[in-house]
Amino acid sequence: MILVLMVVLATAASRINVNLADLTDKIYRHPLTVSNAVLEANASIISIHRHMKEVAHARSAEELENDVRAIKQHEAEVHGRFDIISERFLGEKIKIQSAREAFIEWESIANEVIERARLGRFDMAAEIVETRGAQHVILLTSRMNALTDFARGKASQFLAESKHQKFLSQAFLYSLMVAVVAIGGVIAVFVVIGVRRSEEELRNGRERIEILLASTAEAIYGIDLDGNCTFANPACLKMIGRQGESEILGANVHDLIHHTRPDGSPYPREECPIHQAFSEGMRMHSDQEVFWRADGTSFSVEHTYRPIYKDGAIAGAVCTFTDISERKQAELEMKRKSALLESSNTELRQFAYVASHDLQEPLRMVASYLQLLEWRYAGALDDDARTYIGFAVDGAKRMSTLIRDILQYSRIETHGEPLANTDSGQAIRNALANLQSLATEVEAVVTFDDLPSVRADAPQLAQLFQNLVGNALKYHAPDRNPEIHIRAERSKGTVTFQVRDNGIGIERQYFERIFKAFKRLHGKEEFDGTGIGLAICKKIVERHGGRIWVESEPGKGSTFYFTLPAAT
After folding, report:
1. Is 301 within 8 Å of 290 (Cβ atoms)?
2. Which residues contact 183 (CB under 8 A, 6 or more apart)?
3. Which residues sit opposite 305 in a β-bridge?
4. Could you report the per-residue pLDDT of 498-548, keeping only the tens digit for each?
5. Model pTM greater than 0.85?
6. How far apart are CA 27 and CA 266, in angstroms?
7. In 357-476, where do the E strands start and end?
């Protein structure tokens, strides 16, 4: 009977050892492999962003291409890490897909920066890096950290299970020793040898887990139900400025590193949300807290707490955290620059509005008195004098037109109507009605398809069509009548419009310049205008959340494209 009991106990202990080995292998092959792959991918992402900045400030073509090659190499490395994560990730694959899609979108931003830099548009490249590039880094880092967060949770779960397996194994082993003693010395010798071997395997398994925890760059520590530290890995000790584990083991972690709020006020332990992780069985995640080092300095952290269960009851919690001080500083700097930019834009809009109103009246007075002078003293003026007066009146009128366009440009965002479902067909008809006399004068043929409804400001949409069609009428080829056609395609909630003409065309090197205010390609002797019409088009489209661009070939006409949100 005792022999049978010994066999049963030995079999159970062996099975528990196998489970412990399997848990150790799972931690190594899955959560920690995923965590390390994410860390390596994040390092490559940071390198890509740094090289993007260098591309935007390259001092030579060779330097630019070296940075481009570095970007492509790091992009390949990130995709390789995504492959590892996909193979070893134990959670929902949609999290990986979300992170990967964010990286692919970021690749397109990097490609846009490279394209602008290769065209010599370094100011635009730098603007993309500092705005959309920096914002996307934050989004991408957040999604990557979600993968690490899940992997760390799995590692903590496996670690807790391994401790439970060790406890059961020791219980079975001690029972087995009693049984061995009961059946005699010889059998006892063999059983003791087996027990020692099992203990050695348990010790080796524990050491492997400790080595794995020590090798990760993430800070990890555990607490019991009283909030006292049960273990801490080297990364944790380094971040909080402690020399060894003995300085934190058994100490209350809240009193040690979380005793004060970010504003410097005391943080009572009973108000700390961290304790909810194990007192109420809740998972807690935050990136709005600070931890305190041994030297009294603080640092911003992103941390996650999960409860540890033992035999169905909460036994404590595991915390993982990282130092995000640099990220927080970058976010504050971005907010500061955004606030300065918004303030500057507001001041510029106010200045344009006031200047436009104040300048119109003296210009009208100048033009009126010059015309009155020409009428009253017509007999006393020679041809040169009348020519000079004509030049002055024409200049005043052109200045008045320019001021009116500047005022219109400055009021696109501040005086627009709310976006609503709008019939784009009616908008083009309104625009053509305003252009009827010009279209008749140049004998133009303007056609358009059955156009879909969009979410838009109706007057601004009509203005957009009027400017584009008006340009096509103005810049028509002298040897043929203007032919203009408007069509649209709808795809995934967005409508892409095309305004195609057979005019004089535009050289590729001016595709971006024409959308900037006052960047005229022709002198006023060739074509009249203020050079702000396409800038107004661009501002209207961007206010609607779309983009505008052109494709053209000199002598063969141009096609202007712009996107707007589809009607809901």
Report:
1. yes
2. 2, 3, 6
3. 284, 319
4. 999 998 888 888 888 888 765 555 444 444 545 678 888 998 899 889 999
5. no
6. 38
7. 420-423, 445-448, 453-456
Burial 419-444 (b: 16+ CB within 10 A, else e): beebbbbebbebbbeebeeebeeeeb
User: Closest by alpha carbon to 406, among 439, 371, 359, 474?
Assistant: 359
Q: DSSP letters of 514-534?
A: GGSTT--SS-TTTS-S-S-HH
Where residue 283 falls (left for φ over 0; alpha for ψ -120 to 50; beta otherwise) is beta
* pLDDT reported for residue 522: 45
Whose structure tokens read 């931003």?
109
Secondary structure of 235-272 in HEC code, one letter for each residue: HHHHHCCCCCHHHCCCCEHHHHHCCECCCCCECCHHHC
CA gap 205, 208 in Å, rounded: 5
**Angstrom distance (rounded) from CA 552 to CA 546:** 20
Q: How many CB atoms lie within 10 A of CB 31?
A: 26
Question: pLDDT tens for residues 96-137?
Answer: 888 888 888 878 888 988 988 888 888 888 888 888 888 877
C-alpha angle 375-381-385 in degrees, rounded to nearest 5: 100
Structure tokens at 365: 């007075």
Q: What is the pLDDT of residues 10-42, one digit of tens each?
A: 565 556 555 555 555 555 556 777 777 787 888
Pick from 451, 352, 444, 346: nearest CA to 403: 352
Residue 383: which residues within 8 A CB-CB, separation 6 or more?
Answer: none
Q: What is the DSSP string of 127-177?
A: HHIIIIIHHHHHHHHHHHHHHHHHHHHHHHHHHHHHHHHHHHHHHHHHHHH
Q: CA 79 to CA 103: how far, in whole Å?
A: 9
Cα–Cα distances (Å) from 36 to 12, 194, 286, 473, in that order, read: 35, 36, 21, 61
What whole-number percentage of the chain has pLDDT above 70? 70
pLDDT tens digits, 275-289: 666 666 678 888 888
Q: What are the tens digits of pLDDT across the range 421-433? A: 999 999 999 999 9
Q: What are phi and psi of 278, to 5 degrees?
A: -115, -25
**540 touches 460 (CB < 8 A):** yes
